[in-house]
Amino acid sequence: MATDFKSIPLIDISPLIAKCGDPLMDKDPGVAEVVRQLDRACREAGFFYVKGHGIPDSLIREVRTVSHKFFGLPYEEKLKIKLTPAAGYRGYQRVGENITKGVPDMHEAIDFYREVKQGMYRDLGRTMEGCNLWPCDPPNMKTLMEEYIDRCT
C-alpha cells in the first residue's frame, strides 16, 4: 500500500524502555501510545526514527564512523564477507542485491544481527541461524557492533 507521507516519523520509545520487563507493561497508557505510533509508522511510512532508547550518542557516533570506514573499502575487501543464506543472511550486499517488493534497493548494506544458534527458535528461526561475518578491516567493527546489537536487543 503506497502512502504520501511527508517525513519519517520520530517516535520517543522511553515509556516502552521504562516498563521493559514489567509484567503489566501492556496496561501502561504510555506504552500503549508508543505501540500505536510504531504501528502507524510501519503501516504508513514503513520506516521510523526512535529517540529515548538509552543508547549513548558516543556509541552511535562510533558505529557511524566504523561503518563509513567499512563502506569506503575497495569492493573486493567488502566481498570477503558477502551475505549468504548459509551465514543466516548476514554480511555485505552490493548495490542492487537487496530486493524490496521485487525492486532492487539502491544502496550497499551490511547485515549484523543477534546471533541465532541452531534450534534456538526451533523451525521459526531456522533461516536466521548463523554467526555474523566480521571484516578484518576496520579492526574494531566487531567489538563496536556487538555492543550496539546488545544495547538494541
UniProtKB/TrEMBL annotation:
It holds the Pfam family DIOX_N. Gene3D superfamilies: B-lactam Antibiotic, Isopenicillin N Synthase, Chain. Residues 8-135 form the Non-haem dioxygenase N-terminal domain. Keywords: Iron, Metal-binding. GO terms for molecular function: metal ion binding. InterPro entries: DIOX_N, IPNS-like_sf, Iron_ascorbate_oxido_reductase. This is Non-haem dioxygenase N-terminal domain-containing protein.
